[in-house]
């Protein structure tokens, strides 16, 4: 959350920074702003709203300058407004600062600064940090911006990625990170700074990922990295492997629908080179490397947040069933603050699309200290979690720009099924027959996802019918319980309808009190051993006059006679069904969001990768 | 769910059965009905709505008869209506049947019966079972009702407690159970049958708990128990230890408020004889019996549903912290249908207020087969789970009649803290100092709960303010995350407001999209290590103009400056705080429910003990 961009070189900074902000807008879009240095003069332009509002606001203004830093915000302290937008001036108006993260001890520092006469023009913790740096700078005998930043960063508690410019040093951008991501692109006589690589790839493919507690002193033709102890660090240059087309909409109305429809090919990419169906086998070098540990591991702990947490729940059911290893799925945010029981030899699976989820990063850091092995299931190549993990399996879903995660989720579940199958075969907890069967079924998933899309118009019609909804329950059992949670989350995110997921049998322990004529219950009711029980649950809802939409197996006549609406899914083994069953729920949310006229790629209040805690 | 009552003796059956139904109404109140046998003639009275509606409907009718069976329904198959109400006649009108449970293969049996010419007057599975018995009866050469029932029960799939009467045998009530509870009270020349003991205690204290797969042939002066193999079973007579006053409202408007306000004494009762504070120690014979297993156990699996599941989540945090044993909390309904990994020596903790929760019963049955030790945390003495468990600790909360569980929850958490403390001390994973401190803090809980009640008027005012609410989020971290879930569940159950609980940090991964001026976020934000983080979360909500109600520690000035409303909780160790923090959330739900004019003891669609799957 919060996107950060910087440019220093010979070109005009403004258009580059502005375009970069648009690429990063999925990270937050409460307000946006840009600071430029032109002829040794610092100027700041900022505006509440999306980046478009900033662009409009700057029309006709003098936007020259070869140094620029920009920010698109997801509010933490202080409501979205012009004054709370970044960059923030300091009191002298010589410094400008942008920041992604949360300074936790800001209140105390602010009080100190106020007692020294500082005045604040916003409610943000960022402005406090800026003036704190300024105050240190003013009192330093040698007036070094670099030293002032270093001093300040040592005293603050919290997470940050900051960019700082100073009028008196119109040839430098200072940057530093702890807990929030930062990539620096290396051009010819120019440098690009950003929260992720998407604003950079059209200019250069050579990048440096800045590490926690590192500071970058960036000139157009020089990049210096130091740790907070003022020791030089060697920049490690990585080559980007990403296509520009992958981060553009390519004719679709929204990234979200583009990404939903991409799933046959992203799942295929995820399986490619890993799943062999002729003589069924699975290649995963990330598992081979730690084979012994997977075979002897007494416990797997899955750490994740949001949609990735749901993928983890699906994996819990599948891994326990196939590998007979107890699995615990934890919210990373909860795990990290407890004193959880982790033993040496436990396997931690960290799931994150962006690989930058703040809580997940800290959580795996902690588990590592207890001697656990970390396996990352990450989409963004080279991201922090990918680098922190001992081993990992990428989901290969391509850049996901839509704020509501779709293809990354099916990629995560696919990877986790591959892992479970491979470990189960090695452990001997699955027969070769069942393994072969599941491999073949898995290989058929891309085509079956495509088959679901034949019903898109039908799903859109259902979406129109229910677009007035206020409340919904999503209910499933077994492998499909997490799909109920994920379906409900999608609807919440995109349509702002209060949807809630539950294991179907829990309905009677409270949630059924919500059922009346105006509430929709969405049942995931494809054929599996729970089928009869799910029908009883549907009967219980219908007995109370609730509306029912059911996701059913193709040709189901039993439920179609009871439910108000149905969506059909091709027959598939129940263990793999979650990948298919989530697809219509993604589409339903998308179409309802569009029907309600919402910007589904930028749902209110949200941001994509949650890089604050 | 569904309450069943029967009487056979020399008194008028109707008033006894009617009064019994009122006592059991917490189990369901969609419709009610009574069948009587008078002068060898069977008559049935039934009505949609609560038992009061039935009573009104029967005014002026001939209600004589010394044999009666009655039913108050929680609908599973078929909407609540007169025709779907129990008892159901069979086609000959000679049989009447009442039933609690679900017959899963009813559709197939119904089709067979229809092909034989049977006609159905309701949508229920019960009527199918009744006619199935009749069909068998008709074709038996010896025309034995007993044999017909036995035959039928062997062919059906599902759960049941049934009572059957037949016009040609006006001196017998037939009863049978599998998965749904049944108690028979033994009087002088009379017998009382019921789903639990509450309708019985004013007549007799001697009862027999019927077991699964048992059938009872009940005459006024004879009680015969048989298994389905037609072998006689010796009835095991138990003495009831329950006060009549405990199951009456005693001057309060509702059972719910009575039970909330009882908590200082129910928690005290739960601690009494177990917690010693002079020289701090804990006596729990249920743990002593299996001490070795608790000290060496590698894993604890907690099985529960609904509110009890929330108590289990609190326990997970506490047991892991104090005892360093990994804990997994499972929905019983999910656990039982999977093939979960359970090893010999694992400890299963089953939590259930009623001790009759169907899914939990089956789940522990399964775990037992894998060699796990079962510890029950149950309120109802002598209930099925109490009897199935290897060991256990009663919560001693007294009968809980309000459908929304309150005092049972705090009893469960109290018991689980006692267990964790005792095991931790024995294992040496807690210092004696910390143990002593927690014992003393725990002993202070009843007084501190009482202290919270000083704010009842204040909480009622807040309830009035928010009674128009449509949606709410309940947010907490750590020990208070499950309290957020429980608070949300209470509001759903009693006020039909769509409230949802989340770990506070997960908010940013989706739910925050719901936040606008009309949504209330309830934060549990008492002083603990998460305090600073929770403040950041509150800021994030306020930045998006959401309303905030915070449960805070007494004297908190920081949050009172940010939140719209606060409720104060006496200072207490964070580990024990959940017991206190849930109290204002119970009160808030109660007052909002009352403000909205709802019958808070009988919330729509719900029933107390969930004895169907």
UniProtKB/TrEMBL annotation, chains A, B:
Transmembrane parts of this sequence: none
Subcellular compartments: Cytoplasm
GO terms assigned for molecular function: carbohydrate derivative binding; glutamine-fructose-6-phosphate transaminase (isomerizing) activity
A Pfam family this chain is assigned to: SIS
Domain of life of the native organism: Bacteria
Domain SIS per the UniProt entry, residue ranges: 290-429, 462-603
Substrates-to-products reaction catalysed: D-fructose 6-phosphate + L-glutamine = D-glucosamine 6-phosphate + L-glutamate
NCBIfam families per record: glmS, PRK00331.1
Entries under PANTHER family matching the protein: GLUCOSAMINE--FRUCTOSE-6-PHOSPHATE AMINOTRANSFERASE, ISOMERIZING (PTHR10937), GLUTAMINE--FRUCTOSE-6-PHOSPHATE TRANSAMINASE (ISOMERIZING) (PTHR10937:SF0)
Name used for this protein in its record: Glutamine--fructose-6-phosphate aminotransferase [isomerizing]
Taxonomic lineage of the native organism: Bacteria, Pseudomonadati, Bacteroidota, Chitinophagia, Chitinophagales
